[in-house]
Design a protein that fits this description.
Elements: H1 2-15, H2 23-40, H3 50-72, H4 74-78, H5 83-90, H6 93-102, H7 106-109, H8 117-121, H9 135-146, H10 148-172, H11 180-191, H12 204-247
Helix pairs in contact: 1-3, 2-3, 3-6, 9-12, 10-11, 10-12
């Protein structure tokens, strides 16, 4: 029992972000960093060949081992010994990213599922795994966790405004939209001030709604930027103070 416990604890120490004194953990981090970058390379070519398939298979197997190891040691990660620790960790954002990153392995055993574009898109999620191994990314993740409630409030506000704006333009410009989803699409690109120009209002009232939507969009889009920037500055000051206290 003690041997299993020691192995499990040591495995947790290795797969977690390394500290300068743990060479094995540092080597594991470097290996995973290289695997993540290498795993993204097949997405830069249109057609697959034997080399990209081999690279994809090797990286997926590494990601699979990493995912299983993190689930296995989740009780250390979550800080308590209970089966709920495994469930709690499995539904965390990074754990979900890990799971989706290894799902493309199904295409090797069941070629028929390869027709689903989602399995190819899941490979892009590997980039988010860098959040564990980059200090900058770790800081950004900590910042997003700190302001998640504020960002959630802004997201709700944005969605509500998009729906209200879509309803308004859909009633004013019924001939310009085939369905309500087109109105949602128009409202989204208007609030983000992108304006592709594929759907254009024809009436004065419709144009006024577009102007208001664009102006409100500038304010709404600026909110997350300000929230994240302020939180990032606080995080950097906190780390600087912690570093100074440590040296003192």
């Amino acid at each position: 029992m003690s041997q299993n416990y020691s192995f499990k604890k040591r495995l947790y120490e290795i797969i977690e972000a390394s500290n300068p004194d743990d060479k094995a953990s540092k080597a594991y981090d470097i290996m995973m960093y290289v695997a993540i970058v290498a795993g993204l390379l097949p997405l830069t070519v249109k057609t697959t060949n034997v080399y990209t398939q081999m690279l994809d298979m090797v990286t997926i197997l590494l990601f699979l081992f990493d995912y299983v190891a993190r689930i296995y040691t989740a009780d250390y990660k979550m800080g308590y010994k209970h089966y709920r620790a495994y469930v709690a960790y499995a539904v965390t954002p990074l754990a979900i990213v890990d799971l989706l990153s290894v799902l493309p392995i199904l295409t090797f055993f069941f070629p028929s599922v390869a027709v689903f574009g989602a399995f190819r898109v899941f490979r892009v999620l590997r980039a988010f795994k860098l959040a564990r191994y980059s200090k900058t990314m770790v800081a950004i993740v900590n910042v997003l966790k700190y302001v998640k409630n504020q960002l959630a409030a802004v997201l709700v506000l944005t969605i509500l405004y998009i729906i209200i704006s879509a309803m308004a333009i859909f009633q004013v410009e019924p001939d310009q939209f085939n369905n309500f989803f087109d109105a949602i699409y128009w409202s989204t690109i208007s609030i983000t001030t992108i304006g592709y120009g594929d759907i254009v209002p024809a009436t004065i009232i419709g144009k006024m709604i577009t102007i208001i939507s664009s102006l409100v969009g500038v304010a709404i889009i600026a909110l997350p930027s300000g929230i994240i920037t302020a939180a990032y500055i606080r995080e950097m000051k906190r780390k600087k103070s912690k570093h100074e206290v440590k040296h003192l």
